[in-house]
Design goal:
It is a single chain. The chain is of the alpha/beta class and 648 residues long. It folds into two domains: 234 residues, Aminopeptidase; 309 residues, no CATH class. Helix content is 45%, strand content 10%. The chain is built from 22 helices and 13 strands. The strands form three sheets. The protein has an eight-stranded mixed beta sheet with strand order 1-2-4-3-5-8-6-7, with helices on both faces. A three-stranded mixed beta sheet has the order 10-12-11, with helices on one face. Helix 2 links the parallel strand 3 and strand 4. The longest helix is centred in the middle third of the chain and has 26 residues. The radius of gyration is 29 Å and the shape is elongated. The chain starts with 13 loop residues before the first helix and ends in a 13-residue tail after the last helix.
Amino acid sequence: MTKVEGAETGDRGTGEAVQAIVEKVARGERVRRRLPGGGRIHLDRPLPFLAVYRIPSGGGDAETQGLVTAEPAYLIASGDPDHQPEVAELVLALAATLRTVFGAFLVVEVWSAREGITAAHPEEPVSGARPRTVRRPTFSVVTGTLAASDPSVLSLERTLADIPLRPPPLDIEVIESAAAHPPELPPLLPPRETSGGGIHVLGIEVQPVYRQAKTGVAFPVLLRTARRGLAHALRQTCHHFAITHTSLRAEHYDELGRRTPLEAVWEADRRLGEITSTFDFLLQVTPVNTRRVWAEFERGGFAGTPVFDYRPLVVDVTALKRQLYAIRTDRIEDPTLAHLLDDTRDETDRRITMLADRNTECFLYGSLQVYGGVDDSLHRLATEVLERLDPLDEEEDGALFLGAEEFAALAERELEYYRGIEPTLESVVEVSGEVPGVMVSRGRLLVSKTTSIAAARADALIQHEVGTHVLTHHNGSVQPLSQLSSGLAGYEELQEGIAVFMEYLAGGLSASRLRTLAARVAAVRCLTDGAEFPEAFRELTHRYNVRERAAFTLCMRVYRSGGLTKDLVYLRGLVSLLNYLREGGDLEPLFMGKIALAHVPLMRELRWRQVLRPPSLLPRCLATDVGAARLDRARSGLHPLQLLEEEH
């Protein structure tokens, strides 16, 4: 992915500058250039449309100006009367050049409604008189040279109504008028240039509901919603215009979006990655003395509350937060990428706070913010699984077990298979005394020296750890957005849901495994209901017949550091994934990196825009006949318990 630097300076004469811009456009090159009067032009590539905002001569409106900067082709121009001939010259030159290429060209001007002046009532209020009260639609679409029945206008009206600024549908007014420009400014183009010559104009007047009326202070959440919503609406509108008026053909409207993010995106992504790489959250909140504590807990008759020890904190929380919020995401023009980075930064902030709150009651509150709690529906499912499945653990009774080195050798063989497809795969297997069980950290598969894994479960566990966690880390690492390898906000639920589902596709999802996932949910519910560690332990062993050593491990995972609700995401993620598949969802986008289900539409958008690429590696089990058959069965709609049924 090419990365665009900041704007070029425009220090040449107006005519020469316009000529230079037009020549670059004619050669198919991108343009980013500063203009007189605080203006800027950005052309991602030659396209048959241009979004325009003119800065009022009395002062800028940064919020409304930001509504057009999400577009792949936009112009911010001075609204000062002295600059209007230059602005018109530039717009006309661009329109004429690109009309020749595409057969038609659309100029969309966006402006903010002023008190007492609207697109429907453009006359100035009488001096000293109270402005007339008129209806204030959220958006007024001024048709300009297009008919109100034109597909472009109809698309704009429909998509603007769906922007969630207020309970939709929003109040949208369509005004059939040639005056598709701010009431206080002249037309961008002379009428003779837009009368039947293939150059069209369209206007959008916006009620500034994203800022306070009296103070002018912005409402940040509403402003972000307006930017994303208008970008989506304009993209669909320009797509309709392109396929009905021009020679440009695009299969999907997102193909017309920005393809080349600015350097501000990569800078924010890089700095966020540097911060998240300074600590391993799970290692920092996981006890290092579980074997000794288990022995003490057992000797004490399972009555005392265990005391766990943790690794020393490796980060300065205050300094890390200063670095985190020094990242300038407000400079990112692309609202989709800004949204992804903002949300990931917010979740990183919560995790850093949790590190500072280890072994306090505040840790649990932070965990609830990041992972949520067990709702009644999930609790009922967990109870159903625990009560309907036989508590006997077939895997442990007379089964063959693999040690750490044997399991590591199998995992390394799996990695070699993927390296044969993608030689750049850098993941390794490490046998370590620093971790409990098996886990993936930054693409490395870590296996505890003391681990013992039932041979019948080995392949399923490899599909869980390598086929999901390692592959999504690798696929994310070869994307231009590095957060896809470390994880976007909320990614863990989908990750674990996919990982458990891969166990099913590999034929290794057993009754005892599903019981374990349900028991984790039951333990989290005990935690959030206020039960102490020994009470949760008794709930698992007495009510659900979980073996004592397994129940201790479950409770340790949930009660560590003050209360970590993360373990509910395995069963909740599996349920969400099964629902996604039943509704026709495709697995491939889920492997583009470590994402949440809510990110799937954004991943598709960024793929259409060619910002991201498809995943380079997919799990081996998807290519097998058995795996494909199981996937088809899941698409028909399955309850988690049905994953255990014999296949016909």
